[in-house]
Design goal:
- This protein is α+β, with helices and mostly antiparallel strands.
- 15% of the residues lie in helices and 48% in strands.
- Strands 1-3-4-5-6-7-8-9 form an eight-stranded antiparallel β-barrel.
- The longest helix is centred in the N-terminal third of the chain and has 14 residues, at 2-15.
- It is globular, with a radius of gyration of 13 Å.
- It starts with a helix and ends with a strand.
């Protein structure tokens, strides 16, 4: 159960990246909150029931440093955006998850994951 939760947090953390189409990493950094979680089948899930907290944040820092916050649980790792800005990878505790960038703006990020579905984040 702990491994499943850690993997889910890793994936959600990855999803919260403020992936921007800008040229430098200053547009990628910041604090993002998960506001919608949708299955690959299109079903919108209750975030608190699915993840265990409504307070799900991802913080993208300079030098590709990353923090995932779920309630009182904090995980730290690294993030990396592909050169074409279409793929986001997040590594926490040696586990790497990859997300496809669906849509990105200065205020909203939408990321897709093969098993988690689609995650929507808003800048806080």
């Amino acid at each position: 159960m702990k491994k499943h939760f850690a993997r889910m947090m890793l994936m959600i953390s990855a999803v919260s990246l403020q992936v921007s189409l800008a040229a430098d990493n200053t547009d990628y950094t910041g604090k993002w909150q998960l506001v919608e979680l949708k299955t690959n089948e299109g079903e919108i899930l209750d975030i608190e029931r699915s993840v265990g907290s409504k307070e799900i944040f991802q913080i993208f820092k300079d030098q590709e440093q990353f923090e995932s916050i779920s309630g009182k649980h904090v995980a730290r790792g690294k993030w990396k955006l592909s050169g074409d800005k279409k793929t986001l990878s997040i590594t926490i505790d040696g586990l790497t998850d990859t997300f496809r960038v669906v849509r990105s703006s200065r205020t909203t990020r939408v990321l897709a994951h093969e098993s988690l579905g689609t995650l929507t984040y808003e800048r806080r």
